[in-house]
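Forum: Protein Structure Q&A
Topic: Joint prediction for protein chains with partners

I've read a bunch of threads here and the consensus seems to be that you should model interacting components together rather than docking separate models afterwards. I'd like to see that in practice. Below is the full input, 521 residues plus whatever partners are listed. Could one of the regulars post the assembled result?
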Amino acid sequence: MTSIRTRFAPSPTGYLHIGGVRTALFCRLFAKKNHGQFILRIDDTDQQRNVEEALQPILNGLRWLGVDWDEGPIVGGPFVPYYQSQRSGKYQQAVNELLRRGFAYRDYSRPEEIQAERDAATAEKRTFVYSRRWMAETEEDAKRFEQEGRAYVVRLKTPREGRLVLNDHIRGQVVFDWANEQDHVVQRADGSCLYHLANVVDDQELQITHVIRAEEHLSNTPRQIFIIQSLGYNMPEYAHLPFVAEPGSKTKLSKRKLEKYLKNRDFANLLERGRRIAERIGLEAKTDEFNPVITDFYEKIGFLPEAVVNYLALLGWSLDDKSEFFTPKELTELFSLERVTKAAASFDPQKLLSFQEKHMQTKTTDEKYALCLPFLQKAKYIGGTIDAATETLVKKVIEAAGDRIKLAGDILDFDEFFVPDDQLNYDKAAYEKRIANDPTAVALLDEFCDKLAVHDSFDAESLDKLLRDFLEEKQIKIGQIIHALRVAVAGKSVGVGMFDILAILGKEKTIRRIKNILLLY
RNA sequence: GGCCCUGUCGUCUAGCCCGGUCAGGACAUAGGCUUUUCAUGCCUGUAACACGAGUUCAAAUCUCGUCGGGGUCACCA
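Posted by a regular:
Agreed with the consensus. Here's the joint model:
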């Protein structure tokens, strides 16, 4: 039995669409589940420039998500080159063969003549079928047309009767009438070949057994099958995936409709969250490249690739009625085309975030440290070289923050541990409420500060006890002082546990920050 | 418009093939508990078979029709 081979064939567009990456993921999952190969082929054209540059974000995104390819750019393989632009010789051979076998013909019509026929059909409300008036079946025909100053394109000689029955792995049986198919052009007048032909030829050459692609290609399938059959190629299996739709709609997700998606609250929140992180690490977040429709976005702000993969896998596939959390390894063991759904699935930023949280919770402190460190460095909260003390500090913050760090970039929310005391930023509202308008609290803070000054073991537990004793002595409730204390040492009213803050800051910084507040007051 | 695909809570989905469940789970949402804040965690609630016929003792499930949503109709990929 021959090995299962699937492929993902992106155009070098300069970005990796989140829907595209889901298709690539399913291709790879299916191949790996069946111990086959996943191939990456680049569908560029001769005219495209800067292919390498435009390819970079795509390769990078796939690699980041662990959608690694067995053959293709960089890694090579037995069927090099994996670039369509470098394979044109094969296409010319295929066109010649099609012509020779009589499954294609040279067409000498002019574009406006075809258009006129098309318009006429539309006016009469009937399906357009080319009259083949300028079809050259003999050399004499060709000569005559050429004398009229015409040039030819090569068209498929599509059957005008009968039907095609396609057994799609996801759609089931789909029937097309050949009469509805056009005589599609496969080669232009300048000799370059069109996508559908190139696609089929490459799939044959690369021995692709399963064509797994998005639903939008379903109606293109008959013409491709016609080429396959005409050339006597091996027929691949087909699986047309539902596409990833806009949040709250069934329309295909598109990079260009960012403005529209921003009206969706969850989508806007996700982007906003990303922008906050991007700004702090000095990343240009204004361009349309910084966009949740593009895979890069998630990498830049500290998503976990396995969380994105988990979410994407569940967007159109399910194992059963309750399992949702999967590692990439589990997915390759459990994936099957049979359980792919048929209807388009809307992209839901909140559910993605929820997967991110769940996956982040499985990470150890050391793992989170490795994830968060680059963000702290880019934001210049810590230097490029890390000494032991800094590493300890960051790890303590990560442990104290716990589940509050959902994205690696969220570490930047805990800037109070990394800035010098005199640069601590005080949240205005919190300062007003807890310090400026609460003299009682400030007075208590002053008193408690004296206790801290003579307290030597600065661990969370003993600090907790110290405060409790203070409360008892003063006969007050914890709320009467703790909010002021939090704002004094952290500058904000939200964050990690109070005693963790004090312990991490240490005696010296804690007291200095309280004194700063008392001075300000 | 033609052709093709598709329709279960707001969202992702299980169930459909092989009729019988209070139509299940997750995210979101509402309320509660835990609590020094925020977050986590735990408990509870609200919420769906697009519509109409038919078959049947019984329909989300089978049949027909209607309506809705989407894709595609290039000398783009």
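Residues 498-520 of chain A form the longest helix (23 residues).
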